[in-house]
Amino acid sequence: RCFPHIVNLACKAVLGAMTDMSYAAENAANYVPNDDSVTTIADAIRRDPVATTRTLVRVIRASSIRRQYFAEVQKALQQKDLQLLRDVDTRWSSTLLMIERVLLLREAINRFLSNREFEELRKYQLSDVEWDTLEAYKKILAVPHAFQQRLSSEKTPTLCDVVPSFEAMLWVWQRQKLELPDMACVIDAGMMKLESYRNRSEVVPAYVLAM
What domain of life is recorded for the organism (predicted)? Predict the structure, then answer.
């Protein structure tokens, strides 16, 4: 298996620990977050802020009235008019881009949801802990994204280019486990995929891995 494929598998494992990706499918139903109180990161992970965000993005984008009002909110906040991005289940990096964009537009989103005309959407309001969880998810997903970008910039990546980056990816995730102990279960999901591949690579000839 090629290295990019292994990275994709690791990222899918991470996403599986973060969120229910079935809600990212094109014709998936809207996710409805539970009413449980969120006071810890563990609470936030269980409530699935990514699925909550994904559905909010979807319902805003689906309505011209909501899109227009969201643009007006950004203008009132003197922000650049940016669209919310929706992720898809076929490209893991799209979830990172969606999270990055909603974090950038956090103030606009909160003000949008404060409008009484959209009271039915308030169930998608994120708590501060859930916003913090999305920040942590962004950091975790940024690691393989940087790795992928580095490889894609090389016309013909070689083992001498890939292996150090591969080890660096494991090293950064290990450091993140120390910085974000509440996210250990999420990070471990990706690290286990990478480490299982590394263990196999120690007994498989290099020319086979490069195929």
Answer: Eukaryota
Three-state DSSP class for residue 91:
strand
* Short-list 94, 76, 74, CA closest to 24: 94
Q: Where are the alpha helices (DSSP H) in 19-127?
A: 41-47, 49-61, 64-76, 93-104, 106-113
How far apart are the C-alpha atoms of 102 and 50, rounded to whole Å? 10
Which contacts (CB < 8 Å, 24+ apart) does range 50-53 have?
50/18, 50/19, 50/95, 50/99, 50/134, 50/137, 51/19, 51/20, 51/23, 52/124, 52/126, 52/130, 53/98, 53/99, 53/102, 53/124, 53/126, 53/134
Interval 66-109: pLDDT, tens? 999 999 999 999 999 999 999 998 888 999 999 999 999 999 99
The neighbour count for residue 27, using CB atoms within 10 Å, is: 4
This prediction has a pTM of 0.87
Report CA 176 to chain centroid distance, whole Å.
Answer: 15
